[in-house]
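Before a colleague's protein record goes any further, I have to sign it off. What it holds is a sequence and that sequence's fold in token form. My question to you is simply how this chain folds and whether the tokens agree. Thanks in advance; the entry in question is below:
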Amino acid sequence: MSSALMPTYARQPVGFSRGEGVWLFDTEGRRYLDTTAGIAVCGLGHAHPAVAEAIADQARTLVHTSNLYQVPLQEKLGEALRDVSGMELCFFGNSGAEANEAAIKLARLFAHKHKGISEPAIIVMENSFHGRTLATLSATGNKKIQDGFGPLVPGFVRVPFDDVAAIEKAAAENPNIVAILVEPIQGESGVRAPAAGIAPYLEALHAICDKNDWLLMLDEIQTGNGRTGKYFAYQHSAILPDVVSTAKGLGNGFPIGACLVRGKARDLFGPGNHGTTYGGTPLACRAALTTIEELRKGPIDNARVMGERIRSGFLNTLGDLGVTVEGAGLMLGVVLPKPCGELVARAREDGVLLIVSAENRIRLLPPLIINGEEADLLVEKISALVRTFLNEGAAA
């Protein structure tokens, strides 16, 4: 029988029946080392007992009431996010794309309310990824996924990532710019980090925004929730942004997104300006609250330690072949000297789940609870595959 699903994914020929920590088990019982964590979602690993119990208990208690009423667990989650972020207020949605939609609307509202600009523009980066809704797709710097969906939403000025001079040039040429939307480390394009580090880049952008009275809006959907060794990646620097979007690891697999604001963005939204049916349900908030509690018990520090262990492991085993590593914490891109998409199938056959992005980058996003033995196994298995693959090319 043919599938009843729209063919929007090129799915791999494997399905999973259960998970445990950094491991997934397929429908035939075979075990796989998961280096993807559901694309940076399951930071606490699969079937984390505290999260599982919280979801089960809340499902037995109260799942949904709507935002027509007070939601006490939303208030608690907002306080927890304020505590870990240094931001001031939160809006809860269902996903990262919805969080970025809120950020884009905030920038436009800021332009209309405070700057008298009727056709505002937001600076975004080449090779960025912000979502697949029409506005976030338009903000994304990937023509391949935009093809066929025009006309795109106007109001975005694209510049190269990690190029402060290009932003200053855009500022001089376009008086309608009101904000910068940027990932501290680009994820979907294969883990691309600022060459001089996160701190100098974000601090330079913050200074430009201050000078021009713009909003600095950080897309921390993939970099947030402990992934880089801090709760948010901007915490590697001395700055506080005006807007932060986050999702993915926020609920450890339960869908929830959040848009956090402070400063110039704090009081832009009022009743009726924005809304959502499912955002911030009691069930989603309970999952996220438990995830934050568990992340603060050690996995964030572990991400930093294990990330350095994995980085140095790859450089030691593959550095002689021209392989480099970008990223921070457990958001790492292993950069090969040639396209390596075929490694996905080879790794799967060897019991390892991989993502390859931008043709030649292995994107590593393992659960933040990975231990030293598992990290060493990850390096050992992937290094062996990469060395064989690169030597095949050299022999040919």
